[in-house]
Amino acid sequence: MVLASPNPIRSEGILRREIPVVDLSGERSEVAKLIVKACEEYGFFKVINHGISNQVIAKTEEAGFGFFGKPVLEKKVAAPAYGCKNIGVNGDMGEVEYLLLSATTHSISHISKTISTDPLNLSKTLSAYTEAVKELACEILEVMAEGLGVPDTWVFSRLIRDDESDSVLRLNHYPPIINRESCKEKDKDKDKSSQFSKVGFGEHSDPQILTILRSNDVGGLQISLPDGVWIPVTPDPSAFYVNVGDVLQVMTNGRFVSVRHRAMTNSYKCRMSVAYFGAPPLHATIVAPSVMVTPQRPSLFRPFTWAEYKKATYSLRLGDTRIQLFRNCKH
Predict the structure, then answer these.
(1) 271 catalytically annotated
(2) pTM (2 decimals)?
(3) Reduced to 3 states, what is the DSSP secondary structure of residue 198?
(4) Averaged over 215-242, what is the pLDDT?
């Protein structure tokens, strides 16, 4: 649900740095402060004690690997929900295969009948996961609103809770560049940095409101700081990672940063991530709450609908910056 860049891969340095960690079991006002700070400085943070059961997570990972382990011809039956290497429709490519589903019970049930010999079980698994991460996304958005001092604390989450929400679930699978079984023993001693040699999914920001991401125990995700430095994200299968999307940057009037990120492939191990992209209904008007707009911080973006922004997203390359197209010309 993200669209890679027409520009060459940026060659800026890699910086080892701990990303913000938010414990959702903490005191709510402190959690709100931590989330707001992380969103302003990084547009990205890690969530622990999130309340999603290990069983729901494990079943979803098992289902994902089960699907991606099928022969290619069997996976292609799921097209257009299934794709390989092509990212979007404008010529962007990556070392990735994916399964993209509308985050509704009906859509998940329909695709499950196409790709599984046990469609009822697969549908129940993916629906349970989708509902769990949706609730997590809404909880986080409501805590964000509290931290920002927005009186209507459902102002962000209401867009995702709407029955016509355009949210999607995406499973990404990054096969290893080198067959693990064929690697010589000496390869195990190579420097870790040499394991991530190819871009699996190019630099981009997510256009939606919020992304809830989880991966297996294989690294590859990197986030970009404003100065162009890349920070590798250490994988933690027990945690979830949260990305601020373009819409949330607009709705916070630029206080939160829509994080640019990319996924590198691992030379020896396959990586699988599952991302829930929380999005508004197509007809929803995207505008910052009045409390976010002041004489000192006037409105940075003109109002637009999610349908308009989505159309702009798909008309551009993955790495292009879309949000600038909707800046208020007065500022």
Answers:
(1) yes
(2) 0.90
(3) strand
(4) 93
pLDDT digits (tens, 9 = 90+) for 92-114: 777 899 999 999 999 999 999 99
Beta strands in the chain (DSSP E): 21-23, 44-48, 82-87, 92-102, 168-174, 198-204, 210-215, 221-224, 230-232, 240-244, 260-265, 271-278, 285-286, 304-305
Tokens of 182: 């064929």
Contact call for residues 137 and 212 (beta carbons, < 8 A): yes
Report the distance separating Cα 303 and Cα 282, nearest Å: 14
Query: Over the stretch 165-200, which tens digit does the pLDDT of each residue have?
Result: 999 999 999 998 765 443 333 344 444 545 656 888
Q: How many residues does the chain have?
A: 331
Q: Which two tokens stand for residue 200?
A: 């699996």
Residues 133, 85, 326, CA angle at the centre, nearest 5°? Answer: 60
Contact (CB, 8 A) for 97 and 111: no
Transcribe 93-113 into DSSP letters: EEEEEEEEEESSHHHHHHHHH
CA dist 282 to 130, 263, 315, 322, Å? 20, 28, 16, 17
Burial group, residue 289, by CB count within 10 angstroms (0-12, 13-18, 19+): middle
Which two three-digit tokens encode residue 71? Answer: 């022969």
- CB count within 10 Å of CB 7 equals 11
CA angle centred on 274, ends 223 and 231, rounded to 5°: 15
Give the active site residue among 262, 271, 302, 322: 271
Q: What is the pLDDT of residue 29?
A: 97
Pairing of strands 92-102, 168-174: antiparallel
- Mean confidence (pLDDT) of the chain: 89
